[in-house]
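Q: Convert this sequence to structure tokens.
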Amino acid sequence: MKFKPTHDRVLIKPTPRDQFIAGFELLDGDQQDKSEGTVVAVGDGVPLHDIRLQVTGELTEASMNALKEVIALIERGRQMRVQPGDHVQYGRYAGTEVMYEGEEHIMIREADIFGKFISDE
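A:
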């Protein structure tokens, strides 16, 4: 079964932490949490429901059509800036750990993502 986050939430599979440095095994407390991973699923977008409209003047057919377009945009929300497959870095203490397909994942809001890694090619 697939999982679809709501609104501006992002499901990330964290990159495994380094367990060995120069041949020495690290204890759990000594492992560095890289706070990076691969986006598995994203929500539909950032809600824009807090926007208020004030209409003044005469309402013509053209202005009504423009108003309908604005309302549709508000209902749709802003599109997500990350997509499944993106490799991202996020806040160290961001999100909530969740189990998905038997593995540990992180559920965070898009705003907690610092950026995505882009290939030089």
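The chain has a mean pLDDT of 84.
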